[in-house]
Structure formats: C-alpha cells, structure tokens
Amino acid sequence: MYYTYILLTERNTLYCGYTDDVEKRFQAHLTGKGAKYTRANKPVKIVYQRAFNTKQDAMKEESRIKHLSRKQKLELIDED
Q: Could you tell me if 18 and 62 are in contact, meaning their C-beta atoms sit under 8 angstroms apart?
C-alpha cells in the first residue's frame, strides 16, 4: 500500500507528500530527514491520509492536492 498524506506544521501551513509508511515518514520529517520544507516548517501532526494500491496512484493524488488552494485542502481534510 502507498499513501498520500498532509501534515500540519507549527506555522499553520500544510505539507503534502506520499509514502509507503506514513508514521515512519512522519518521524523522518520530525527529525529533519524528511523534506527540505519540513526542516524549516516543523510538522505538528498528520491531518490527512489516504491509501492507494499503487505508488503511481498515490503520486497522482499528491500532485492533485498540491494544485488545490489552501481552502480546498482544508475542505478535503474536513471531509476525511
């Protein structure tokens, strides 16, 4: 399984990514070994995750989410 996820950061921003292990990836973000963005914007919690059967599908969803406005991302999180 692969997952698309959204993190809430200390600065109240949202970060979207994909992985095959959400908790392990979250820990990597917390220790500064995740993405460059989360080294500067420390994540607080996982606010959204969705499972996919393939890496390609998870990556497509990540791309789709990254093109949403903040308002649309918040609506997606609230729907979940």
A: yes
Superfamily of domain 2-74: GIY-YIG endonuclease (3.40.1440.10)
Residues in the chain: 80
Residue 62 C-beta-side C-alpha neighbours within 13 Å: 19
Q: How confident is the model at residue 67 (pLDDT cuts 50, 70, 90)?
A: very high
pTM of the model: 0.94
SS3 12: coil
- DSSP code string of 31-69: TT-S-HHHHHS-EEEEEEEEEESSHHHHHHHHHHHHTS-
